[in-house]
From TrEMBL:
It is found in: Cell membrane. Pfam families: Cyt_bd_oxida_II. The chain crosses the membrane at residues 6-32, 53-75, 81-99, 120-140, 160-182, 202-220, 226-249, 261-282, 309-329. GO terms for cellular component: cytochrome complex; plasma membrane. It is a multi-pass membrane protein. One of its GO terms (biological process) is aerobic electron transport chain. The lineage of its organism: Bacteria, Pseudomonadati, Bacteroidota, Sphingobacteriia, Sphingobacteriales. This is Cytochrome bd-I ubiquinol oxidase subunit 2 apoprotein. It comes from Mucilaginibacter pineti.
Length: 336
């Protein structure tokens, strides 16, 4: 049953990054869109993120609940050492959701309040995935120092370092890339399609540059990232698959056909990146600066709690997954 819980945990993290990441990316794309095209971009974005808007944070809630119930020691350690970036992450999610709701459904849409909500939406869309990446980079790279004697050493520099911040910017670039690719399939006008393809290329280049920054920061901060990813067959295989899927994606876009495949290819590519990053660290979920770590296979709740949690997750998925499938189907049918 423990492996069932772990499977649900990683599935929820992956789906949150693929769906919630594209959701955040919608605001990132809007942030870097010219004033003349912002209205058209927003309209297309609403069509793209509509089916998953309300459901996105369900995956984050599942992740938090699984950690809190199934791995309480790991949960408490993360909330202790990374409480500042976690707080900023949660505030970003709240600000973004509030801005999205009020700028669409506000009873009185005057220019000043709309501008305020627009700014809140785009900047929180940037900040939230930034700190999501910072948290992930800090937890997995050995930046957290449990022996620190000062507040800054324990609660600031555990996440405020070059490596974690570069991972945060890499996450922002990936979210923007996902959103740009997803929105290409939603655009109806040729001019809009070309504009979104251009944005996807820009975000693709930004992801490559930020990825290079991650490796550079890893070198200077003694994080053995290259060996971490390329030092085993699985890591090399998934990196090759991610690269091939990216090439195939751009071939399809260049051919201007079968655009329904590009979303799957983008999601596949990002999933391969997550596997490349996470598989060598498994089952460790937090790695500390002194070399110690917290493992999903040892630092978990009692066997009875894990069994009940696994049963609850499996039974709940029987209701949730069909409902989500029908939600997506309903939106697509409404568009047609």
């Amino acid at each position: 049953m423990l492996y069932v819980v772990i499977l649900f945990l990683f599935a929820a993290i992956t789906l949150y990054f693929l769906l919630g990441g594209a959701d955040f990316g919608a605001g990132i794309i809007e942030l870097f869109t010219s004033t003349d095209n912002k209205h058209r971009t927003r309209k297309t974005m609403y069509q793209a993120i509509g089916p998953i808007w309300e459901a996105n944070h369900m995956w984050l809630i599942i992740t938090v609940v699984v950690l809190f119930v199934g791995f309480p020691v790991i949960y408490s350690e993360m909330c202790t050492y990374l409480h500042i970036p976690l707080l900023i992450l949660l505030l970003g999610i709240i600000a973004r959701g509030t801005a999205f709701t009020f700028r669409n459904y506000d009873a009185i849409k005057d220019e000043n309040t709309q501008n305020f909500y627009n700014h809140m939406f785009v900047y929180s869309s940037f900040v939230t995935p930034l700190f999501l990446g910072i948290i992930a980079g800090s937890a997995l790279s050995g930046q957290i120092d449990p022996t620190a004697k000062t507040f800054a050493g324990a609660y600031i520099f555990s996440w405020f370092n070059w490596f974690s911040v570069s991972v945060g910017f890499f996450t922002v670039a990936l979210c923007g890339f996902l959103a740009a690719i997803y929105i290409v399939g939603e655009s109806k006008e040729i001019a809009d399609t070309k504009r979104y393809i251009k944005k996807a290329k820009i975000m693709n280049v930004a992801a490559v540059i930020c990825g290079a920054l991650v490796f550079t920061a890893a070198y200077f901060e003694n994080v053995h990232l290259a060996n971490w990813i390329f030092g085993n067959k699985i890591g090399v295989t998934v990196v090759v698959l991610a690269t091939l899927s990216l090439v195939w994606l751009w071939m399809i876009i260049s051919a201007q056909k079968n655009r329904q495949w590009i979303r799957l290819l983008a999601a596949f590519q990002v999933s391969m990146i997550l596997i490349a990053v996470g598989h060598t660290r498994f089952p460790r979920f937090i790695i500390f600066k002194d070399g110690s770590s917290m493992s999903l296979l040892t630092d978990h709740a009692s066997g009875k709690t894990i069994d009940d949690l696994a049963i609850g997750l499996m039974v709940g998925s029987l209701f949730i997954l069909p409902a989500l499938g029908y939600l997506y189907y309903s939106f697509q049918k409404k568009e047609r």
